[in-house]
Specification:
Length: 170
């Protein structure tokens, strides 16, 4: 059974995707300084998932240059939105191989990788990942408003299918 925090992460991902439906390439790379552009947000969230759930948790290396392009404290960039969506989908699908089998007992443990261990427990990393999505979902929504987009999605969307119990699926 998928853990509650994993379900919440997947919901945060779906709301992020829903917020960005219909964004054109032109708008996706438009920077309203000092913020980054919308396509950057997509790649940036993929960086975190790639590091946490693909590299650290599974020992896999995919998209090795992504951090240089859209990582924390890197210079601003305006990557193509379709490239960032493809990268994000590849990474989140690969991350799910780990997340979908994660037992609850592991949430209070650290990931061991490259002869070291993660600074935070897996549970804290999941929370950090979830909140990171909500942060950038709000930021992307604000960028869309500043770009003059109309009829934007309302937040938070349909939660009727979101599990909020550890011991049962809805």
């Amino acid at each position: 059974m998928t853990l509650l925090l994993v379900t919440q992460l997947k919901f945060a991902r779906s709301e992020f995707s829903r917020c960005l439906e219909g964004v054109s390439e032109e708008d996706a790379v438009h920077r309203i300084e000092p913020m980054n552009c919308i396509s950057w947000f997509i790649g940036h969230l993929a960086v975190q998932e790639n590091f946490y759930w693909v590299y650290m948790a599974q020992g896999k290396t995919i998209y090795t240059d992504l951090n240089d392009l859209v990582g924390y404290n890197r210079p601003p960039s305006t990557p193509p939105i379709e490239e960032m969506w493809k990268t994000w989908r590849d990474i989140t699908q690969t991350a799910n191989f780990y997340l979908d089998t994660l037992p609850i007992e592991k949430l209070e443990t650290n990931i061991h990788f490259d002869g070291t261990q993660s600074r935070e427990t897996i549970g804290i990393m999941l929370l950090r990942n979830i909140y990171h999505y909500w942060f950038h979902t709000g930021e992307a929504h604000a960028v869309r408003q500043m770009l003059g987009h109309k009829d934007l999605p309302t937040f938070v969307g349909d939660m009727s299918k979101v599990n909020y119990f550890h011991d049962r699926q809805i």
